[in-house]
Design a protein that fits this description.
The structure is a single chain. The protein folds into three domains: 26-140, Double Stranded RNA Binding Domain (2-Layer Sandwich), CATH 3.30.160; 160-231, no CATH class; 234-403, Porin (Beta Barrel), CATH 2.40.160. By secondary structure, it is mainly β. The strands form two sheets. The protein has a twelve-stranded antiparallel sheet with strand order 6-7-8-9-10-11-12-13-14-15-16-17, with no helix packed on it. Strands 2-1-3-4-5 form a five-stranded mixed sheet. Strand 6 (161-174) and strand 7 form a beta hairpin. The longest helix is centred in the first third of the chain and has 20 residues, at 113-132. The protein has helices at 2-11, 25-32, 43-46, 49-55, 113-132, 379-383; strands spanning 34-38, 59-61, 70-78, 84-92, 100-107, 161-174, 177-191, 195-212, 215-233, 238-249, 254-267, 277-292, 302-318, 321-332, 335-352, 355-366, 393-403. The relative contact order is 0.10.
């Protein structure tokens, strides 16, 4: 039995190989085709890689970036209408070193999957043409043109305003436990080259009941708030604006709060490059009025607080991976010891052929919990996290890696038995 299994394992990798010992025209063209590496950090883009392989079959999709003549980095950011501005950065290397292209296509909030992937494929086809033109396969290409645009543009009756509403409910339970959850949200936004306006109203409530022997434990939390953000573009590096919020939170012991925080921001890189790199520094200062539900540990039932915040955010997407890092500091003016310092960062790194690693880390030094309830919390409130608890710090870490090896080419799409990618071996012996 072991001998038969060993023979099968040795023979399987070579099945079908001997039938192609003599190079064919198709095989020659495949070796001459453009080698392309596509960054897959964008999960939406990654879902359609099979479709791209089918629709653009005249290039080689290689696994490792060092084997590629051109690599593609897809990014996207939300537009004012609720859709997305999708950007593909094409960067040549090896024989195409020095060649770079940036291609953009827009999708609407109601864009279908088919509409999205057709736009994506058409955009990639246009971007790859000048690279394919330098390969022997160029003589087999045929370029056509269609006019999708109307001659006139109708006036936008909404003046760039977009509104969205949602409501969610959840109920579950069993003999000794039941829970209900309700939330609602309504938002409006208007985003143009010069202005960014976001308005939002939300409500949330959560109720739970636990039956332990003869005891019945009930838990309740709710929050509601209104927020507004208004930003004016001053230049390709500077912007000015502010945010305000009004609401309440049972978790934070706030019966009513109101914040007003004007601020100014500077981006070291032009905002037009925001999908690839950002280094934004934001300073805000303002007033916070709070009316507490219960007396705080500082014997306050309400107070007016002046405060400021300074934050720096760095984001970059490159062929070796991506970095997303933020550091922020805030304190109250009446007592500078009441402050908060937090950092968090994410790193996705391609460190070797087929090997990718990712790290995440975050930490905060907390010295500004002014709203803590004076009375001792019950075990129920602590265990169910229904009230904010005193803490001088918090942190998190995450990490992961993936490794792929084998053939550098990845051109064929085979949907049979699904796309799980898994496999197995069945040995039938008489």
């Amino acid at each position: 039995m072991k001998r038969y299994i060993l023979i099968v394992l040795l023979v399987l990798p070579f099945i079908g190989g001997y039938a192609q010992e003599t190079p064919t025209k198709s095989d020659t063209l495949r070796k001459d085709a453009l080698n392309v590496f596509m960054e897959s950090s964008d999960y939406v883009f990654e879902q359609h890689t099979d479709y791209i392989h089918r629709e653009i079959p005249y290039v080689n999709y290689v696994r490792d970036i060092r084997d590629a003549g051109v690599y593609i980095i897809p990014t996207r950011q939300r537009t004012g209408s609720g859709g997305f501005e999708n950007t593909c950065f094409l960067v040549g290397q090896h024989q195409f070193a020095g060649m770079r292209d940036t291609l953009v296509f827009l999708t609407t909030p109601d864009e279908t999957t088919e509409g999205y992937r057709q736009k994506m494929v058409n955009t990639l086809k246009m971007g790859l043409m000048r690279y394919v033109a330098r390969t022997p396969l160029s003589k087999y290409m045929n370029i056509s043109f269609s006019e999708p645009l109307s001659e006139t543009v109708s006036t936008d009756k909404w003046n760039s305003w977009v509104f969205k509403g949602s409501f969610n409910g959840y109920l579950n339970g069993q003999k000794t436990y039941n829970s209900s959850y309700l939330s609602g949200n309504i938002s409006g936004s208007r985003i143009t080259e010069k202005w960014k306006i976001n308005l939002n109203a939300s409500y949330y409530t959560n109720n739970s009941k636990y039956i332990i022997d003869e005891d019945v434990i009930k838990s309740h939390s709710d929050s509601k708030y209104l927020t507004a953000l208004i930003v004016k573009s001053l230049s390709d590096h500077w912007s000015f604006g502010g945010s305000t919020s009004l609401g309440s939170s049972s978790y934070s012991n706030k019966r009513l709060y109101f914040n007003l925080m004007p601020g100014i921001e500077y981006d070291l890189f032009p905002y037009s490059e925001s999908t690839r790199r950002q280094l934004r520094i934001l300073y805000s200062a303002g007033l916070s009025f709070v009316n507490y539900t219960d007396s705080t540990i500082y014997d306050k039932i309400k107070e007016n607080l002046w405060l400021h915040t300074l934050s720096a955010s760095y984001e970059i997407v490159q062929k070796w991976g991506s970095i997303d890092f933020t550091m922020s500091y805030s304190n109250y003016f009446h007592d500078w010891s009441k402050n908060n310092l937090s950092v968090d960062g994410y790193l996705n790194l391609r460190i070797a052929k087929g090997l990718n690693v990712n790290f995440g880390v975050g930490a905060s030094l907390i010295h500004d919990q002014l709203s803590l309830v004076k009375q001792d919390l019950t075990y129920d409130e602590i265990l169910l996290q229904r009230k904010e608890i005193a803490s001088q710090y918090q942190y998190f870490t995450s990490f992961g890696f993936s490794y792929t090896f084998g053939s550098i080419y990845n051109n064929v799409v085979n949907p049979r038995f699904g796309n799980s990618g898994g496999g197995g071996m069945m040995i039938i012996m008489n």
